[in-house]
Every structure is written in C-alpha cells, then in structure tokens.
Design brief:
By secondary structure, the chain is α+β, with helices and mostly antiparallel strands. The protein is 34% helix and 18% strand. It has six helices and six strands, in the order αααβαββαβββα. β5 and β6 form a beta hairpin. α1 crosses α2. The termini are far apart.
C-alpha cells in the first residue's frame, strides 16, 4: 500500500471534491509549488491511488428518473454461478453499481430506469429469467448521496480511542469511588442515647 503523507491526502481530498481543478489551483490549495504538485499527482496516478477521473451525470436530465436497489439471491453458491451472474449484472446498461455480499443476499444492484414499467421489464428479462437466480427483492430509491472516501481520516474517522468501547457498545465512565467518610457514616451503627427515667 502506498505511503501517503498529509499533503498527499490534501491533494486527494481536493481532487475528490472537484476533479476539474487546474494544477495551479490545486497547488495553491495544498500549499505546494505547481511543479511539485504535478509530480505528486502523477505519482498518485501511477501508484493506482487515483484510478480515474469521472463526470457525475444527472440521471433526471437523461430521462432516468427512477432508481432502485435489487437484492439477488442465487440458487447455487458456486464460483461459476457468481462469475456468470456478476458479469451479466455489470453489463446491463441500467446498472450503476454492483455489490457482491455475504449473508442472505448475494448481490445488491443499483439500477436506473425511465419509469416503473421499465423497471418491471428489467427485473423480469434480466434478473428472474436467469437460471442462477433464486429470488429477487426490489426497493425503490427516493434519494441518495454519494460521498467521497475519508482520505483525511484513513485510520478510522468517528471511532473513539481505545478503551471507549466494551465489545461493540459504548460504556459509561466508571463511577467515582465514595469517600471513606461518607461510607463510614452510612455503615456505622447508630449510637444509643441514654433514656431518662
């Protein structure tokens, strides 16, 4: 794994937010000379840290106003079935993302469609008709936000320091010990006063 320093992470964060930054703008943003900045970007590309630069398109503007997640269960859990159906799902024009999962769901597919009729025909012709598929479950997506990777906190953003968890659940701070005076006062037997006759 490539060793990234603070400046590398600043470059990645800036490009992930806006990949159209010029080298001069990027250099000014991360506090480097343009030549040094360009060398770092090229090294991040050659090391495979930066895989590609992509445009994020508006699906509504393309007439694809309906999005859905399709959970797929396979009949047989063998390598050939996984390979065949995975390749098929990734080849569909409507597919935005394919996740291969462990658990009851084998694949989760994010698709975009024109309308519900388009989605219905897609599920019948490209999912349930496949011999590898046992069942599917479709959920409509009302909204979603694609976020970038946490390049500034690669070692665990939002994770409390060691000792902050017991198992998987946060625990409360231990109670402060009682003072000996308070404990003695509570446990000391009450003295009897002499009664007057």
């Amino acid at each position: 794994m490539p060793q990234l320093d603070r400046i590398d992470r600043a470059i990645l964060s800036a490009l992930q937010n806006n990949a159209r930054l010029s080298n001069k703008e990027l250099a000014a943003q991360v506090g480097l000379a343009p030549s040094s900045c360009l060398m770092r970007v090229r090294k991040l590309e050659s090391d495979g840290v930066i895989k590609a630069y992509q445009a994020d398109l508006d699906s509504d503007a393309l007439g694809l106003g309906l999005q859905a997640l399709i959970a797929v269960q396979l009949r047989l859990h063998v390598g050939e079935a996984f390979g065949n159906i995975g390749e098929h799902l990734r080849s569909l024009p409507e597919t935005r993302a394919v996740y291969c999962l462990g658990g009851t769901t084998d694949f989760l597919v994010h698709v975009v469609c024109r309308d519900t009729d388009h989605l219905r025909r897609l599920t019948i012709l490209s999912f349930t008709s496949r011999p590898e598929v046992s069942r599917i479950e479709t959920s409509l997506v009302f909204s979603y936000t694609r976020l970038g990777l946490p390049v500034d906190h690669a070692h665990g953003v939002g994770i409390p320091p060691k000792g902050g968890f017991i198992g998987d659940l946060p625990h409360e701070a231990p109670l402060a010990p009682e003072s000996p005076r308070k404990r003695d006062r509570r446990t000391r037997p009450a003295s009897r006063r002499p009664t007057s006759r």
